[in-house]
Amino acid sequence: MLSSYLLTTLVVLASASLLFYGLWLLIPIISGLPWLPTNHERVRAALDLARVQPGDLVYDLGSGDGRVLLAAARFFGARAVGIEISPLHCLAARFLALINGVSDSIEIRLGDFYKADLRDADVVFAFMTSRQARRLRDTLPARLPPGARVVTVSFDFDGWLPTRIDRENLVFLYEMPPTPGSLGDFLAQEQN
């Protein structure tokens, strides 16, 4: 039979774990963007498509646990900034950067990526729903310098002509300022 102390400790640990996990999922959902991590292969494919170079500054909008930031720093030699609304995800990303030895190359900012200053970005990574994509599309051109690259996973920007596409991983690349057009226009150009 479990002692009263051990039972109390187990209940407290279980409650804390449930609270942490609940907040881990709930905060992003409340912000309108549920937490759905991008798999590592798609992250690498997106950063390859964006032609990330050593010294580039890569922003991840809604950076979650920081996997894009880690890949940009570790495999591409880039500096990386994550914008994340959940304090728990920020803590997790900072911890992962520390244990992976790239904390000097990564910055995690707690905040709303729709309001973030992106003037110094070379590359912006985005993985979100189409609803958030429409809102982001309307604000990005004024916030990014000419020549900045925007790489999106699982969605395209309606009204913008992609520069390149990775069909296997469903990754789209755009360059600032965006060229008017569509995915259909890109595919038609490819066939000619």
Low-confidence stretches: none
Which class do the helix and strand fractions yield? alpha/beta
Summarize model confidence as the mean pLDDT. 88
Order of neighbouring strands in the sheet with most strands = 3-2-1-4-5-7-6
Just name the CATH architecture of the largest domain.
3-Layer(aba) Sandwich
Structural domain tally: 2
* Overall number of strands: 7
Descriptive overview:
- The protein folds into 2 domains: 1-30; 40-191, Vaccinia Virus protein VP39 (Rossmann fold).
- Helix 2 (40-49) crosses helix 3.
- It has 6 helices and 7 strands; from the N terminus they run H-H-E-H-E-H-E-E-H-E-E-E-H.
- The protein is elongated and about 75 Å long.
- With 192 residues, it is of the alpha/beta class.
- A 7-stranded mixed beta sheet has the order 3-2-1-4-5-7-6, with helices on one face.
- 35% of the residues are buried.
- The model has no long low-confidence stretch (mean pLDDT 88).
Characteristic key phrases:
single chain, alpha/beta, Rossmann fold, 2 domains, elongated
Give a quick precis of the structure.
The chain has 192 residues and is of the alpha/beta class. The protein has 6 helices and 7 strands, in the order ααβαβαββαβββα.
SSE layout and pairings?
Layout: H1 4-30, H2 40-49, E1 57-61, H3 67-76, E2 79-84, H4 87-99, E3 106-110, E4 123-126, H5 130-143, E5 149-153, E6 164-166, E7 171-175, H6 183-191
Parallel strand pairs: 1-2, 1-4, 2-3, 4-5
Antiparallel strand pairs: 5-7, 6-7
Helix pairs in contact: 2-3
